[in-house]
Design a protein that fits this description.
The chain is α/β, with parallel strands linked by helices. It has 2 domains: 60 residues; 220 residues, Rossmann fold, CATH 3.40.50.300. It is 51% helix and 10% strand. The protein has a 5-stranded parallel beta sheet with strand order 4-5-6-3-7, sandwiched between helices. A two-stranded antiparallel sheet has the order 1-2. A hairpin with a 6-residue loop joins strand 1 and strand 2. The longest helix is centred in the N-terminal third of the chain and has 26 residues. It is elongated and about 100 Å long. Bound molecules: adenosine-5'-diphosphate, magnesium ion (MG) and zinc ion. Adenosine-5'-diphosphate (ADP) binds next to helix 6 and helix 13.
Length: 317
């Protein structure tokens, strides 16, 4: 059964290139030599090529069809015309894709995924949060890589600091395509400490590099780890490195923005005074780092009750 069909060169340049590559790597001579052993029933390389080319063509057609279905504005190319004939711009589908990629790279914890500026309440019983929300919106509007003053959100537990910080970076990612990173202070220090463990493959620098390099970093609950010499050194490494590289940092803390309590005085009275006073940010990260924070950030105070308690008591009324 000799084949008399002639092999048609495919129209598509890509397919033609592939076919010519296969022609080189699959010479007739080779086929002739091996078919007695392999028992191949196909008669010539043309049949192989034809089948293979048809398969490729189907795959390319399928790919083009899927791409066109994905985005009707750009047909899957990612570019669309921008006004004049010769100008093109990134299609929204690519911007959206970039936003989604950046959002998953931002490491926002699952329990804060719902947090957005748009669902942060600031009226009625939450009117005291209006200033904070305005500061957050202004921060997003005015953000540029040259304007690297961050925010220091201060307030007691449940006043919405983390919600606001997450809302800010989500907005920066989605509306401006800025790469942001979220880290819980405790989690970060734990990961760095773990990296000293021989059984953990990540090195200290591997943990720290994204923290140093993130364009905008949220460090949530600063001061939440019991202060030690190592904690202070590590926090100062992070803050100083971001400060020197002009990078923007958003910090939240439950501790009041006061200096460390005076550690002098060992009288009964001094000790009683110290014990009566609750801890401050200065106590937790040291006065030097506290004053560095003041250079890096604008302070936003968030007063009020725990938001969850307000909701609960409202539902009992
Ligand atoms: N103003 C607000 N509007 C809507 N939800 C809020 C608001 N403030 C806090 N929440 C919600 O209350 C919970 C606690 O807030 P969170 O931001 O974790 O407080 P904080 O970080 O100050 O301890 C979160 O689920 C958050 O979404
Ligand atoms: Mg919080
Ligand atoms: Zn598109």
């Amino acid at each position: 059964m000799a084949t008399d069909r002639t092999y048609e060169e495919p129209q598509c340049v890509l397919l033609r290139l592939c076919v010519s590559a296969v022609k080189k790597s699959f010479p007739r001579v080779l086929h002739k030599q091996v078919f007695p052993f392999t028992g191949c029933t196909q008669r010539s390389r043309r049949d192989h090529l034809r089948e293979w080319a048809a398969q490729c063509k189907l795959e390319v057609e399928e790919f083009m069809k899927t791409a066109a279905e994905v985005c009707p504005m750009c047909g899957g190319s990612g570019w669309k015309s921008a006004g004049s004939e010769h100008r093109v711009a990134r299609c929204e589908c690519r911007l959206k894709l970039r936003g989604e990629t950046l959002l998953s790279a931002a490491r926002i914890p699952k329990r804060y995924e719902h947090c957005e500026l748009s669902n942060f309440e600031f009226d009625g019983p939450h009117a005291h949060l209006m200033k904070a929300r305005m500061a957050a919106c202004r921060f997003v509007e005015e953000y540029s890589p040259n304007n690297n003053t961050g925010l220091l959100l201060i307030g007691s537990i449940g006043t919405g600091k983390t919600h606001l910080a997450v809302g800010i970076i989500k907005e920066l990612v989605v509306s401006k395509g800025i790469p942001c990173l979220f880290y819980d202070y405790r989690e970060l220090l734990k990961q760095i400490q773990n990296s000293y463990n021989d059984s953990v493959t990540a090195t200290e620098l591997e943990v720290l590099r994204p923290v140093f390099e993130a364009e905008v970093l949220v460090l949530d609950e600063m001061g939440a780890v019991k202060p030690t010499e190592w904690v202070w050194d590590t926090v100062s490494l992070i803050l100083n490195s971001r400060y020197n590289d002009n990078r923007t940092t958003i910090i939240t803390t439950n501790y009041p923005d006061d200096a460390a309590r005076d550690s002098n005085g060992n009288s009964e009275f001094a000790r009683a005074q110290r014990a009566a006073r609750s801890e401050t940010l200065g106590d937790r990260i040291g006065d030097r780092m506290r004053s560095r924070l003041h250079e890096m950030c604008r302070i936003v105070k968030m007063e009020g009750q725990d938001f969850r308690q307000t909701l609960k008591s409202a539902s009992f009324r």
